[in-house]
Amino acid sequence: EIGMGLTGFGVFFLFFGMILFFDKALLAIGNVLFVAGLSFVIGLERTFRFFFQKHKMKATGFFLGGVLIVLFGWPLIGMILEIYGFFLLFRGFFPVVVGFIRRVPVLGYLLNLPGISSLVDKVGESNNMV
Fold first, then answer.
1. Dist CA 84 CA 65 (whole Å)
2. Which of 3, 10, 36, 53 could form a cystine bridge with 41, CB 3.0-4.6 A?
């Protein structure tokens, strides 16, 4: 429960920091809370194994490099790198997320609209997005 709360607050602070024109303090707090929450949810050892798998080193470098750049005070560049790394790291989860969202009543209807459906189908594919 603590891990989910930390992760949720991390996502909130990241979102709020981006809305407030990339406020570096909010983004830094959000990054720290997100990574800490992820560690609480799946455990330290599994978090380390997830981030430092051989085939995910590029994605981990972008994500953690973006976190460091945000912490050093360059929020826009750091968030761009971080978002790219996030998509590379978590692209395996996108088909599951898309399948879940399609079963939610209102969101599922929106995802099945003609223009949006083809875009969501591409994102929901299980192959690489690079």
1. 11
2. 3
